[in-house]
Amino acid sequence: MGIKQLLFLCFFAITSSLSAQSVTEHVVVKGNTLYSLSKQYGITVNALLEANPQITGTALSLDDVLIVPMLEQKNTVLLNTTDSVASIQDSVGIEAMFDMYKVRRGDTPEDLAQEWGFPDMASFYRLNPDARTNWKRGLRLVRPVNDIALLQATVDTVVPQPAPTSDTLLVSGLDSARTSLEILGILPFFHMDYINETALSKRSPVAMSLRMGMEFAASLHSDSSFSVNIEFIDSHNQRDSLKNALDSLNLDNYDLLLGPLYSKRVQQIADYGIAGKSVNLMSKSPAIQGLGVYNTVVSEDSFYQMLLELVNERDSLSTKSVPLIVTKGLSNKCEIFYDGFKNPNKRLITNDDQWSSNEALAQLDSTLHYELIIYDNDPAFMLDVLRNLRSGSVSYSLFATEYQLFNSGITNDNFTRESEVICAMSSYLSYEDLNTLLFVEAFRSHFGTEPNQYAIRGYDIADYHIQRHLYGGVPMRGILLGFDFTQDSQNRWVELRRFENFEWKLLR
User: Fold this and answer.
1) 8 with 41, same domain?
2) Which of 143, 69, 76 is closest to 104 using CA atoms?
3) By the number of CB atoms within 10 A of the CB, which of 52, 319, 374, 486 ranks highest?
4) For residues 250 and 362, what is the distance between their CA atoms, to the nearest angstrom?
5) Cis ω before 69 (30° cut-off from 0)
6) d(CA 120, CA 43)
7) 270: in domain
8) Is residue 480 part of a domain?
9) At what angle do helices 453-471 and 204-220 cross, to 10 degrees?
């Protein structure tokens, strides 16, 4: 058993002994998994395992009787919220588990995390999400003051939300008398094209995978007293087909619209005046911004903004680090980005007709360390710049976005030789994470097949927006995607990960 699993069991053994008031029994039926039962009863998988030591793996046997610990709601702390310290203490029922700390001059997140005993920055930011993007003197932080609190803040898991009640529905703004949440999925299934095996059929599996993930999320939020219902229409990625389908429906009957995939169809849906209901699943088109549609895909500007902040922080600690921007062609956005660097020794290299990238890069000072950002997504251009730098003796770190490294065909092998590679990303799937393994097991049990990236994406998106409707929107990390819609309808979830030993380790 690994350290993380031990932390899970230790923490929940402690909290269960403190807060468990009663238990109930559950008879295992077809389709039940540890993951689905944790969602159904609003507890954690590890709480189930703690109460049922006879379970030796992740699979459950039909007709087995499980003990389900029922925890009082007041003793549950949802670490993804931004509740005050006082409310957290009240909810836990343990005196002085957390206290308040105000950021002082010279404090850094890394120093405080180390001082307070956090094993990594992810745990620190989980308890203090504002510290990730709003670090400043006077910022109020939640600080654990005993081992129980530190264990709670350290557990790297998603605490399942309880099934909706009249109280939670009132908080979310939904009618407390409601017994269901209605969702419309809009996807290009291309049913007829798929049947006839035309060239468009290759798109259908993507839509079907997204559908499976959405349906799985809906099932985990449903129980005997509240149901999350989802139905689907086929957009065919055609204006007339989508219009006819939408015109045949009363859109007022739906609380949430998930889809479609393509930017033109997203714009078409926005024209129906259903702002605040629809979710863009995958399109990166800037034209969609500002249409009242929840844009799941993080904009490139958000990635670069996070890189800008990191480089500025690092440069303040070193006199020999110089921001270096290399771009194929100078644009207004690139100039604004370049102007944002505080280091007066910053350099900008453009690949114009005046000189080749070889000549420009040859002029760099070998006594300095360059914080390299290639402001372009062309993989051929990126590889050319990196190849030219390797041929010299310049020391540099590469700062990139997930669009550059993962969506353009560049693989890990292309940058394993860099001294340091840091990537701004909003999506990352780790099969070393216990949540991922449990999700895969539950999905496999439910559908009899493995979830691909589109199924996981569909699950994450549906899971987040269901919770947003039922409990309110807070920053949340899913299995693959992260979500932060606290500012507006644009997802601004960005993580920084460093490439180490062929793995992407979370930096912040």
Assistant:
1) yes
2) 143
3) 374
4) 64
5) no
6) 25
7) yes
8) no
9) 40
CA dist., res. 159 & res. 45, Å (int): 9
Contact 230, 214 (CB under 8 A): yes
- Residue 490: CB partners within 8 Å, gap ≥ 6? 289, 295, 298, 299, 302
**Looking at the structure, do residues 398 and 304 belong to the same domain, yes or no?**
yes
Q: State the CB neighbour count (10 A cutoff) for residue 219.
A: 17
Do residues 185 and 244 both lie within one domain?
A: yes
Q: Identify whether 101 is part of a domain.
A: yes
Q: Can you read off the two tokens belonging to residue 134?
A: 């709003």
Q: CA-to-CA distance for 45 and 271, rounded, in angstroms?
A: 43
275 shares its domain with 179: yes
Q: Is 87 helix (H, G, I), strand (E, B) or coil?
A: helix
More confident of the two residues 454 and 167 = 454
Q: How far apart are CA 41 and CA 161, in angstroms?
A: 9
Contacts of 198 (CB under 8 A, 6+ apart): none
pLDDT at 50: 77
| DSSP 3-state of 50 | helix
Q: pLDDT tens for residues 234-270?
A: 888 888 888 888 888 888 888 889 988 888 888 888 7
Considering only CA atoms, give the Rg of the chain: 25
Question: How many whole angstroms separate alpha carbon 312 and alpha carbon 135?
Answer: 13
Overall pTM surpassing 0.85 (yes/no): no
The pLDDT assigned to 42 comes to 66
For the chain, give me the number of helices (H) and strands (E)? Answer: 20, 18
Cα→Cα distances 398→248, 306, 334, Å: 52, 14, 17
**The pLDDT of residue 174 is above 60:** no
Tell whether 356 is covered by a domain: yes
